[in-house]
Amino acid sequence: RIRNAAxxxxxxxxxxGGTVGDIESLPFxxxxxxxxxxxxxxxxxxxxxxLVPYVASAGELKTKPVQHSxxxxxxxxxxxxxxLCRTDRYLPRSVKSKLALxxxxxxxxxxxxxxVDTIYELPLVFHSEGLxxxxxxxxxxxxxxxxxxxxxxVVSVLKKPERRIKIAMVGxxxxxxxxxxxxxxxxxxxxxxxGVAVDIEYVDSDKLEGSxxxxxxxxxxxxxxxxxxxxxxxxxxxxxxxxxxxEIPYFGVCYGLQMAVIEAARNLAGLAGAxxxxxxxxxxxxxxxxxxxxxxxAATGGTMRLGSYPCRIAPDTLAARAYGKTEVQERHRHRLxxxxxxxxxxxxxxxxxxxxxxxxxxxxxxEYPDHPWFxxxxxxxxxxxxxxxxxxxxxxxxxAAVRRRTAS
Length: 408
What we know:
- Helices cover 34% and strands 21% of the residues.
- It has 14 helices and 17 strands.
């Protein structure tokens, strides 16, 4: 598997997770042990990550966990070249010397992997500790000094932003915010591109109704994320209606598009009781439904549309302006689709279907032309975002939120 992954690349970074000594990881550790013999000692580098806890009552950093971990590694034939020491403070030279002596590594190869305020600060911390120098020297890679200006700008914006904006994330997993990790990071990336910090307010869609909606007036944007099932669906629909009527920038991702279509069907197209068959199998207007070729697979669970699919974007739309082009590839992970039987009624009600599959059958993007910024997408754009190149839709959404904040 490692050799297959290495095809066509100059350097491969392989992580073997878990704890040294656990039986589950032994086959993988044995594989990387053998690999060094296969590729040559000068072409393989072992970096071991271990914990150096600080015992507050003793005022002391304890090196025993690292020593025992390295001992376990050496017992199965792997001698680490570099130690990455997880800790909450920079290691003093005395601790590094101790670890170098008892773990049989060079003192320069004992690297502090300190807790940081933002994960994007890690490249700067590792560079200051000399990790990159250790890697290139030991693998005999000739290279110039790294240009870290982009990383420095990302960290500078996150630590000292020009302004802050607030985005309401309306979902049902708000007690498990890591469920939205990719979305959170995509918002952060977009914020960096605008020089702002994005504060996310998690709103439980189960409890969002009536006067609770007024709390959304203070936010600069509303995002309804993915999430299968009926729980919290009505709260999401009410939040979407509130965003549309109060002209608050709205971004719906996957399920967020489907809920926006239901809101439009009910409140603009006059289709009382419109819903998704996932939420209400007996709905009189299944505006979100399985496609005909999916229905036969529903009993076996083989209904998921997964992977990358092309999306054709109508010109002179919000989506086209965000992307700067009219055809894109995006990653999907969902089951139901916008029912083609209702496409025209939704259009007549004012909903713009601005992105579709090349054959026009599947709805990929929806929007409203007379709203400051309202867009839903059936795919997961967060999967293609990074700190240096935020996804165009996230960048446009955060830009709209910044304009709202500036105008208020």
